[in-house]
Design brief:
62 residues; flat
């Protein structure tokens, strides 16, 4: 069981570092809002996070 928790923690930290490297601080804010909203079951919070991430991804295409 501890191995699974360790692997998931490494995956999450790696994913956050990838987002921060590629999208900068605003990408981290969007990811943070999305994850907090999902954990707290707050539709407003995760919707704002999803919109921020979508704007970061679609920004160059706009």
């Amino acid at each position: 069981m501890p191995v699974i928790a360790l692997l998931s923690a490494v995956f999450v930290v790696g994913f956050e570092q990838l987002v921060q490297w590629h999208y900068g601080p605003s990408g981290i804010v969007g990811l943070l809002l999305l994850s907090i909203g999902i954990k707290a079951k707050s539709p407003t919070c995760y919707s704002i996070g999803a919109v921020v991430l979508a704007l970061m991804v679609a920004g160059p295409a706009l």
